[in-house]
Amino acid sequence: MPMMNRMMITNKEVEAITEGDFKKWLMGFDRNNDGLISKSELREALRSSNHSRVRFAWLKGRLGMHAADLNHDGFIDDSETRALAEYAREHWGFRIIIVN
Ligand SMILES: [Ca+2]
User: Fold this and answer.
1) How many whole angstroms separate alpha carbon 40 and alpha carbon 42?
2) What is the 33 CA–ligand 1 centroid distance (Å)?
3) Interval between CA 29 and ligand 1 midpoint (Å)
4) Cα(66)–Cα(60) distance, rounded to whole angstroms?
5) CA 79, 1, 31 angle in degrees (round to 5)?
6) How many angstroms is it from 3 CA to the middle of ligand 1?
7) pLDDT at residue 7, as a whole number
8) What domains are there in the chain, each with its CATH number?
């Protein structure tokens, strides 16, 4: 399991996390250690986040993947985590500080 407590990612009582924290959390679900997040790995990350809005992990994962997978290869790579962080903030209620 990723080191980050699942509640940290969505609990509104808790301070927002940084983009770097989000990336670490996400990459904790890189089960085959290929440096990419697949659809199923993203789904698992969403399920673990335990947020009330994340009830349909399959669909939400699919939409998130669609939004963040900029080169359409079916994976989230290092350069696409920013797009996913922005998507997660807007659509999944994640509290992420994104510094431009
Ligand atoms: Ca992977």
Assistant:
1) 5
2) 5
3) 7
4) 10
5) 50
6) 17
7) 45
8) 21-97 (1.10.238.10)
